[in-house]
Specification:
This protein is α/β, with parallel strands linked by helices and 389 residues long. It contains nine helices and 25 strands. The strands form seven sheets. A five-stranded parallel sheet has the order 3-2-1-7-18, covered by helices on one side. α1 packs parallel to α7.
Length: 389
Amino acid sequence: MNHVVVVGAGLAGVRSVEALRARGYRGRVTLVGDENHRPYDRPPLSKAVLLGDLDSTVVDSDLGALDVDLRTSVSAKGLRQGALETTEGELEYDGLIIATGASPIRLRGEGTQHVLRTIDDALALRELLVPKAHVVVVGAGWIGAEVATAARRAGCAVTVVEAAQSPLAVALGTEVGGRTVPWYAEAGIDLRLGTMVGSVDPGGLTMMDGSWIPADVVVTGVGVRPTVGWLAGSGVEIDNGVLVDEHLRTSMEGIVAVGDCANWWSRRFGRRMRVEHWDTALNAPETAVATLLGETAVYDPVPYFWSEQFGRMLQYAGHHDGARLVLRGDPATDRKWAACWLTDDHRLAAILTVDRPRDLVQGRRIVEGGQRLDVDRAMDPSVPLRDCL
């Protein structure tokens, strides 16, 4: 293998380059990215950057020492075996790593709407978060809550509209997501649930029921879609991202995929998963590169992510679909609490913690180990989770 091309110059892309060199690959490496920036981290964009604490989140990686040909402002357009078509012409390859990530969903309408995906998005939005500006955030998911937090801290009047019956309904379910509703009121935010947007228009939002919400700034945070349109007709199988096996191998020889765009098979949970979080972009490249170089490696992590919102640190590990919810502490009276999801045989499938980092660390290990919990003890927040086995 003489030339490896990495498509996507985000964290997953640059970690792929590092993994190639760490495993002794000495051939050519080309890193292609559609932004005009060096690779950078995205999680701080909705936190430190939006709050004005950082202006840059460039990944600490010595691209010169890695001997990589970084090509910025270059987008992938198509693919055939052995050749990547880009906006700057074709690149021949022996091995290909797909790390094109995901793109924000935008709502219909002629009004200006901001999304938060790139450093440029974050810096542009930050300039608009000024005292007394009326900011309307569409979507009470992770990004929506973090944007609302930053906007209130900047002195903006904030309205959050959410189609579901609770914040974080898609990620955590309405029962757990509903426990976060009081946080919005405490922060002085007007939260409107079960409310659907018809269109984004100049000066505000037209709702599906015909009502009008004026806004100086509209931020849309209703999710993302994997950036895989450029693969149409290539032979790479696509279904909610790039379909890969547990080795992160695609349907085409010599091609692997990582990060937000990869829909991988999890042995642990017995299902396909596409996880749009930093931890996946950080760690999946090790497996993908090992596979590309002909080694045997399996990607089967316990998914992990975190969010900082309304002065609280939320952390989640695992996968809870089909599992039974057990609360650890009372969210109505305890500022620090956790939610555990258990399988039918009392194994911990997932855990969400609110300002309980020790629970997260111990819970993540228990999920990894597939161990059973004593449910009654697990419901008592005074008992360490490691003592509930």
